[in-house]
Amino acid sequence: xxxxxMDNMGIVVEDLDAVxxxxxxxGLTLEGRMPIEGEWAGxxxxxxxxxxxxxxxxTPDGHSRLELSRFDAPVIASDHRTAPVNSxxxxxxxxxxxxxxxxxxxxxxxxxxxxxxxxxxxxxYRLCYIRGPEGILIGLAQEIGxxxxx
Length: 150
Fold this sequence. Notes:
single chain; alpha+beta; 18% helix; five-stranded mixed sheet
């Protein structure tokens, strides 16, 4: 085996504060924020002279992290936030939640919207995709038989 674990998934955003607030409301914890810059960072990413602020978010189980990045330099090269889900290279993260209806209601207060509808998948999960701040796409899953009241 070569992989030990997945440390994090990254999403580049414009409004770091709004996106952090969204993921805190979803249930993640902000571990910290910090600037990333310097010659070493450009050698890792291939983006020279970068100035980035990152916020590291942790899931409640402590096993997964989401790295949110806002690039101050250089300018953003491309934007695929509103691309359809069948676009090449498009990313989304899926989160299991205790109560999908309550989660959607709370995230709607921060501008989120359900992409189409909440569906029942083989009486195992209730599932949906939502778009959050900046069009970020995330999936929500609630195990059928799990808590359904707020």
